[in-house]
Amino acid sequence: MSSSASGSRVTLSEVARAAGVSVMTASYTYSTPSRVSAASREKVLTAAEVLGYPGPDPSARSLRRGTSSALGVVLGESLPYAFDDPQATRFLAGIADVCAGHGMAMTILPTNGSAEDAQRIRAAAVDGFVVWTTTEDDPVLDALAVAGRPVTIHGGPQRSPFGLVGIEDRAAARAVAEAGLRQSRSPAIVSFPFSKARAETLTHGPDPAAATFPVTRNRLLGFQDAITAAGFNWNQIPVAACSTNSAAESARAAERLLNRGDRPDVILTMSDEQARGVIDAAAQAGIPIPSGLAVTGWDGSDTAPGCRLTTIEQDLRGQGAACAEAVIAGNPAVQPQPWRLINGHTTR
Fold this sequence. Notes:
Blueprint: H1 12-19, H2 23-31, H3 38-51, H4 58-65, E1 70-75, H5 81-84, H6 86-101, E2 105-110, H7 116-123, E3 129-132, H8 139-145, E4 151-154, E5 163-166, H9 169-180, E6 187-191, E7 201-204, H10 214-229, E8 238-241, H11 247-258, E9 266-269, H12 272-285, E10 294-296, H13 303-307, E11 311-314, H14 316-329, E12 334-336, E13 339-342
Parallel strand pairs: 1-2, 1-3, 3-4, 4-5, 5-12, 6-8, 6-9, 9-10
Antiparallel strand pairs: 7-8, 11-13
Helix pairs in contact: 1-2, 1-3, 6-14, 7-8, 9-10, 11-12
């Protein structure tokens, strides 16, 4: 129990007095142990253990130094998502690469749309923030704006004075959709969620502008560009929105689409995980790929080579590193990233 007889938190001065050393010696025991003799260090640590002193307050120490030596990652998903989703893990690995090179820690700050999100951001003892997955209307962005620390957002939205790292989603979506639409008569889409509500929906020709997740909106716009250019009526295109980037959920969405009377002969997806789910659903229904159903993915992840997907390849690990470097340098900017279309064996 780290409290004194009066019930308040035990102080370093009390530890020093109990150890019979100066406050400076006690302080050096924690901050610069090499400047303290082994005997004095043992006295201080023993007194701290007896009194229940846990050590200096890290946030106070950070304020004195003017830095916390930690980078905050604002994750607009549940914490397990960071370790379950292959795209998220690659992105976070890029941030970790940079943090390791700079001798910094990485603090993951999951947000869930609750009132506590902004408070969690303001209280974070970090030198700057990288944001993964957010919406245009996310109150977290306002909290970050007043935090007084550098911020870089991955994938959007673009908001001054924050930096932005990502690919041109709309152009890439049009390119991969054009590949998927070859010899197609009945297209459909499996989409990322439209908003923080993360509702699973099945609609026809939704307005892309209604999507508050910028990545969802821009990829829908690119799909819409290609679909209308190919002569289809956007208002008749079925779009199944998933709540997360999950192969299992995508398989359920694809099953609903494939059981329709106007069964699609191509399904455009927003990730390789979603594409894998569609391929699993097609296999369950006995539909051959690509002659019976063409499928496109996104990301060029480890899933893609196994499925030989037609997909958009991007370097998420490199993008994570670019976000971290921009924040650490204190110079966030707009940094477009490269991408390329991979023509695999899942389209005609």
